[in-house]
Amino acid sequence: MSALRRPRGRALLAGVGVLAVLAATACGTDSATGSRTGESSRKEVYRAVSEALDTVVRSGFPGAQVVFDGPDGHHVLTAGAGDLSTGAPIPEDARVRIGSNTKTFVATVVLQLVGEGRVDLDAPIERYLPGVVRGNGNDGNRVTVRQLLQHTSGLPEYLAGRDPAAPGSGQLTADSDRLRSAHYEPADLVRIAMAMPPRFEPGARSVYTNTNYILLGMLIQQVTGRPAAAEIGSRILEPLGLHDTYFPDSRETGIRGPHPRGYHEINGHREDYTDLDPSWADTAGAMIATPTDLNRFFTALLAGKLLPAAQLAEMKKTVPWDRGEPGSGYGLGLIRQASSCGKEIWGHGGSIPGFGTHTGVATDGTAVVVTVNQLLADRAASEVVNKAFDTAFCS
């Protein structure tokens, strides 16, 4: 059963106070009445989201959590188990693997470098990584930085997708037991990709490809002289005070601080998949964070606190992409997400064996993260998670 955690009083009171004053000023109503109306509305939202989370757990996920931040304060709703051995719920301040949300951090640093005049969005990647994108028809002179950010490069994928790895390709299977303890350097991952031909002409369409963001991490290091993790730390995490967000150290397999267990199903058997070496994901998906930190990051990004206006505008120029729902679009490491109520929502999302996170911020400043502690291959199960996310914004 889902449970509403008590909101942090200071944040909630600040949000209610602003809403009550606005209501009294605009409509001439009593502020107490406005406060009661707002509180009743919020309770309806939390009830609807709680029901959606219960549905997520009934569909087969061990546990699920929604974290709200914004004008109405900080609120956490949780259902199911964060640890199946004890039955304990997902902790309120849980650190989780955030998968491809990492890409938005990477894209932000790249666009900061663009704003500083150190990177040209429409320059070929060959300018920054000479000789790296080469072989079997791949050509770094024909692929731009923008195309890497927007997944329009056409470059091959080093990870096997939903289908088994192509015979002889060397593609990695993310949930293989061998990969949990194996260690890779970014150059290793790119070499796997370059052993295959391009999938399509650069710029022809957008197909989600992790290779693109491994290359962008290498670009950051080449331009700045420091690893991408260090640049993310000094440019984003430290200024925003995101103390519970980090890039795992080399060969670090655990998760620091309070966290749920992450589960994965292999050959019909559910296994504890919490601990792994995420080097195979690197700048495409290795980071760890709390949902609260993710909300703070995406809110700051969309408020223009991390990028100049020109670069944020570039980030929000979207194209249709292969994994998008009708109405969604992929920008430069940022996704415009469709909603049933027509709200404009920007964020990303991430999945890695053990964890899935769905992130977004609406134009009214409401930020939401939905977390589950297992990935299910069943399409219907994925849809119930999407439904919980939509309910958080549209109920």
TrEMBL record:
<dbReference type="Pfam" id="PF00144">
    <property type="entry name" value="Beta-lactamase"/>
</dbReference>
<dbReference type="InterPro" id="IPR001466">
    <property type="entry name" value="Beta-lactam-related"/>
</dbReference>
<keyword id="KW-0732">Signal</keyword>
<dbReference type="InterPro" id="IPR012338">
    <property type="entry name" value="Beta-lactam/transpept-like"/>
</dbReference>
<feature type="signal peptide">
    <location>
        <begin position="1"/>
        <end position="26"/>
    </location>
</feature>
<feature type="domain" description="Beta-lactamase-related">
    <location>
        <begin position="59"/>
        <end position="376"/>
    </location>
</feature>
<dbReference type="InterPro" id="IPR050491">
    <property type="entry name" value="AmpC-like"/>
</dbReference>
<protein>
    <submittedName>
        <fullName>Serine hydrolase</fullName>
    </submittedName>
</protein>
<dbReference type="GO" id="GO:0016787">
    <property type="term" value="F:hydrolase activity"/>
</dbReference>
<keyword id="KW-0378">Hydrolase</keyword>
